[in-house]
Amino acid sequence: MGETILRVENLRKKYDSAEAVRGISFAVEAGGFFGLLGPNGAGKTTTIGMLTGWVEPTGGRVEIRGMDLWARPREAKKLIGLVPQSFAFYPSLSARENLSFFGRLHGIRGKALEERMALVLGIVSLTDRADQIVDTFSNGMKRRLNIAIGLLHEPAVLILDEPTVGIDAQTRSAILESLKKLNLGGMTVLYTTHYIEEAQDLCDRVAIMDRGKIIALDTPRALIHSLGKGIIRMEFHEALDEALLGQIATYGSLTRVDGQKKRLHLETDQTGLVLKELLNIKENREALFKSLDVMEPDLETVFIHLTGRDLRD
Amino acid sequence: MYPILAILVKEGKILTRDRQALAILFAMPVFFILVMSFSMEGVFEAGSRARPMEIAVINRDRGLLSREIIAVLKGVEGVVLVEAVNGTPLTLERAEELVRGGSYPLALLIPEGFSKEILNFDHHGAEKATVSFIHDPGTNIRILGGIKGTIQGVILRRTLLAALPGRLKKTLAGARGAFSPPGFLPSQGQEKEFDALLAKAILEKDNGPEIAFLSRSPRGQATGRMPSATEQNVPAYTIFGVFFIVLTLASSFIQEKKEGTFQRILAAPLSKLSLLAGKLLPYYLVNLLQIALMFAVVVFFFDMKLGNLPALVLVSLALALAANGLGLLVASLGKTEAQVNGLSVFLAITLGALGGMMVPAYIMPGFLKTLSLFTPHAWALAGYQDVIVRGLGVPQVLPEAGILLVFAGSFFVLALARFRFR
After folding, report:
1. Do A107 and B422 touch (CB under 8 A)?
2. Which of A13, A203, B66, B341 is placed for a possible disulfide with B61 were both Cys, Cβ 3.0 to 4.6 Å?
3. What is the rounded distance in angstroms from the CA atom of residue A174 to the CA atom of residue A183?
């Protein structure tokens, strides 16, 4: 067991009418890559806000390397690097000017600041654009600068809130590669996303959040192994008769049947066998089937299994 | 046609969703019309039958002529003469106090022995009878000019009429025997000479008493000279300009909220108070530079006298603080850029108008005059006028600077209680 660098205990946030985060607890080990996975509105951004001193919790505790964030904010915040979901910098300044400003906020000055700026600009491949006004940057470049600012003061924990939203595949892949390298270099990363592949590919531990709660927490492999089942999604041109519905139900568990009985989700441990049976039915009643697709067990099917909903619902 | 309709409906929905911005959009012109109409009424109607100007009168003369002048002035439209307050006849000291306090824009002093000087004029080199106008140096010259002219006209006409018999008597006595047949009246062919003699009797300077009109400030605020129009107007323009920082400052806060930079800054090891202080300080300095530039321009181009510099700096420091406080308050009240923009412009114009930036507060109707005291603009203007046109120093502007600091403090307290970084 490594050192616990971030510990969250029974963290809650209640706004006027709604409880955005309802008592979540988890711990992140030094050097870990921890993912918070959940649909939009699950409470991930509010959680990030509470982990970085931006949103005051209604209850609970956040400890960074044993220091209570809300009791000793100055010391604790030195250990955190934040990459918010929005482009949180000044578009009328150059990349270098932005970095210099945020570096100074963290008390970095002079030669040390120059060196750090050069290093992070290199990490995000913006060295040759350092003196360009940020407003002229593409979305991908802005995302990279957003990350560079978070890295500038060598934080012990880098907290990223959906850092790949709204960018092209190439930039996304470059960003993910950079994050992997940083993590391999020893930096602890806490990462929120609603992209399954990112969470599976990057994270050594994942907490699945839904409606303000953590509904599952483990390594992606363990989650998929224990909770992930294959899901076969079917759509029909007309409502299924009771006989056929009953027959399909014998192949697994029907987790979703719409009111018109035209859409079904069937969960099974044996997707191959069940698919064969279904294709037999399809052969006889070709006109009935509109679509049929198979989801192999992954974090998405884990989420569907736990909530009955898609991550992107 | 359909796409236009769709865009129209969409815009309508968006507009009506931001109700605060919409309210400002409608309230601003209504309020502006009310304030400007009420106050501008003062400019165009000051000294008219609808809005007569009250003038304090101290008549130290016991003669017939001054009584007659006052009687005629009482009949002049647009002028109300006040000879007594609460049943007590005005003394010079009391009248000066009232002018100094802004109760009356002008006091008229008729000196002791005035009637006698005019009616019994009989020697060369006699001293001029001096009538004094006492008014605050800050009072608008244009508005005062018309009233002073009317009063001077009445005094000169009545004086000339009163002195006429004496003038004629003196001239004709000198001409005794000049006309043929001997007597006062000219014979045929002598009318021209006689007319010239009469004109000389009436118009010749040395033939009758002379009147001097003196304008001065009440004692205790005399600058030794009357201010120029530039000196009177520049403080108001300066204050008006200073409060436009509200828009720049509040918009910048909204921008930071929108961009998410506050979140990132507050993830760094610094307090919210440090963030606010760092954020406000540049705007405060900009305000001070703005004031310095405006005054430098008028000194350079119009040779304006700024008066006591430490006092000017003191008022400027307090004024900029009040403007910044108001900026933060607007930032704490507005949630969208539209709201902040609307509210800033609304406040800049209406507070400016109420505070006497466009129309002097002393010619506003009573309720607006009272309302103007609840604007920082009015106090800043009083402070600047104390320094620039009344020639006062630091101790005398402490009350104005103090009240501006109270405004600033109240704005900051209210703003901090409401301000959200998100």
Report:
1. no
2. B66
3. 14
Chain B interface residues facing chain A, Cβ-Cβ under 8 Å?
259-261, 263-270, 421-422
Measured between CA atoms, the residue of chain A closest to residue B269 is: A74
Phi, psi angle pair for B160, to nearest 5°: -60, -45
**Does residue A305 form part of some domain?**
no
Q: Chain B contacts of A90, Cβ < 8 Å?
A: 259, 261
B259 chain-A contacts, CB cut-off 8 A = 86-91
Q: String of b and e for B149-186 (b: at least 16 CB within 10 Å)?
A: ebbeebbeebbbebbeebbbebbbeebeeebeeeeeeb
Contacts for A71 with CB less than 8 Å, ≥ 6 apart: none
Q: Flag if A88 and B266 touch (Cβ within 8 Å).
A: no
Residue A156 lies in a domain: yes
User: Is A80 an 8 Å CB contact of chain B?
Assistant: yes
Rounded CA separation B410/A47 (Å): 35
Q: How far apart are CA B347 and CA B370, in angstroms?
A: 18
Host domain of residue B24? 20-43+227-418
- Whether residue B63 sits in one domain with residue B34: no
pLDDT in tens, A180-206: 998 998 899 998 988 888 888 889 999
Q: B16-66, pLDDT tens digit by residue?
A: 777 766 676 677 667 767 766 666 666 556 666 667 788 999 998 878 888
Query: What backbone torsions phi and psi does residue B402 show, to the nearest 5 degrees?
Result: -60, -45
Q: Closest-CA residue in chain A for B278? A: A105
Render pLDDT for A133-143 as a digit per residue (tens, 0 to 9): 999 999 889 99
Contact B260 A106 (CB under 8 A): no
- ipTM, 2 dp: 0.80
Whole-number mean pLDDT of chain A? 88
SS3 content of chain B, % helix, strand, coil (to 5): 65, 10, 25
- Pick B264's closest partner by Cβ from A55, A75, A88: A88
Q: C-alpha dihedral over A179, A182, A188, A193, to 10 degrees?
A: 0
Cβ-Cβ contacts under 8 Å, B264 against chain A: 82, 84, 88-89, 102, 149
Taking CA–CA distances from A78, the nearest residue in chain B reads B269
- For residue B4, is it within any domain? no
Q: Are A84 and A158 in contact (CB under 8 A)?
A: no
- Contact across the interface for B264 and A84, Cβ inside 8 Å: yes
Q: Is the pTM of this model over 0.80?
A: no
Chosen domain end from A201, A219, A237: A219
How close does chain B come to A204, measured CA to CA in Å? 25
